Amino acid sequence: MISSLRQPVVGISGSDLLLRQRHATPIKARSFLPSLSREKGQGSLVSVQKPLHIGASLGVGNFVSVKSDAKRGDLVKCEAYEADRSEVEGASTPSEAAKKVKIGIYFATWWALNVVFNIYNKKVLNAYPYPWLTSTLSLACGSLMMLISWATGIAEAPKTDPEFWKSLFPVAVAHTIGHVAATVSMSKVAVSFTHIIKSGEPAFSVLVSRFLLGESFPVPVYLSLIPIIGGCALAAVTELNFNMIGFMGAMISNLAFVFRNIFSKKGMKGKSVSGMNYYACLSILSLAILTPFAIAVEGPQMWAAGWQTAMSQIGPQFIWWVAAQSVFYHLYNQVSYMSLDQISPLTFSIGNTMKRISVIVSSIIIFHTPVQPINALGAAIAILGTFLYSQAKQ
Asked: Record's InterPro entries (predicted)?
């Protein structure tokens, strides 16, 4: 950086500031720069050839006078030490560490909320086997929560335009299909079986990314998916209760959610809408898509009859179950989208796989499923597979 300042002929040496003999009035150090002016076409060139490291104070001892001929005037060279590169690198380290901690908190919260949702969702479906209405209530609850948050100022409302909603539509279609398919699967089979099948989502993600998006992965990445899927399956093999509708529902949900995650990541790029608000808009649009289909497939008459039966069997507690599964569904998805702001779709799918281990273990405990040593072995293999995958990706 080169900057020029015109001033009376001044020599600066060491830490002393001296005026030449022709000047009668000294210039104070603090008023030195403001008092610079042109005189007789002569001036000084202040040269800074290194980035300055600016500290708490700047002493005149950093200046060294350089003699030059009278035509050019005095050349005053400002020397300062260059900031150590390690200081710059060290400054970025805390931000990277903070980002990792932030993502870790997101993942832990996401998994915990998902476990609670799955428990209450299964309780509701056992007593009230209407997955289309249950899925609709989950979306409606989340949409209502966010609309209230925007209206009251708790959360800042997103600024959207028609182009945003247009790009969101395919994401909403995939989200709606995946949500309903997973709920249908869980209404037909055990929680563990649904999540065994859905643990294959990373494989779907890799295949879709490879053949549709043109992304390539090293061989170890593909191989690392085998213990992830196999370990989760082995962990819940004692719960295996095959049902074709439940199996197909979980498979369809896998494929739909992979497309949802990929479309979401693309749609969120360059948008000012945060992950939280993005999922809120997604819920509202998905609710609009799902509601007419839910009415057509099940209908109010079936819902009313089933509600009376559930209330007679469970009592008022059933209302709490429905409310809890709806609220926690929105919360865990909201946190997952906050995570998706920071990670890739494939990493998101791996996080989903680890989340399923938590769900499988918790469902075994809550629903008193007998635990065999093979379950623990399967969980260990799945965790090992996830570690191998992370190493292969690096």
From this structure: EmrE-like, Sugar_P_trans_dom, Tpt_PEP_transl, TPT_transporter
| Helical axes 275-297 vs 162-188, angle rounded to 10° | 60
Q: Checking phi first, is residue 315 left (phi over 0); if not, alpha (psi -120 to 50) or beta? A: left
Tens of pLDDT, residues 95-111: 777 777 777 787 888 88
- Backbone dihedral angles phi then psi of residue 19, each to the nearest 5 degrees: -100, 150
Residue 101, H or E segment: helix 85-127
**178 vs 233, residue with greater confidence:** 178
At residue 135, the pLDDT reads 95
Q: What is the pLDDT of residue 192?
A: 77
DSSP labels, 229-246 = HHHHHHHTGGG----HHH
Check whether 163 has a pLDDT greater than 50.
yes
Angstrom distance (rounded) from CA 78 to CA 72:
17
Beta bridge partners, 13, equal: 16
pTM to 2 decimals?
0.67
Is residue 286 scored above 90 in pLDDT?
yes
DSSP 179-190: HHHHHHHHHHS-
Residue 42 pairs in a beta bridge with: 39
Query: CB-based burial of residue 28 (10 Å sphere; 0-12 exposed, 13-18 middle, 19+ buried)?
Result: exposed
* 135 closest CA partner among 186, 178, 173, 179: 179
Distance CA 245, CA 181 (A): 9
Whether residue 379 is predicted with pLDDT greater than 50 in this model: the reply is yes
The ranges assigned to domains in the chain are 2-78, 95-393
- Would you state the structure tokens that stand for residue 307, as one six-digit string? 């509600």
List, in sequence order, the alpha helices (H) in 22-84: none
Taking a C-beta distance cutoff of 8 angstroms, is the pair 221, 165 a contact?
no
Overall size of the chain counted in residues: 394
d(CA 324, CA 364): 20
Higher pLDDT, 173 or 11: 173
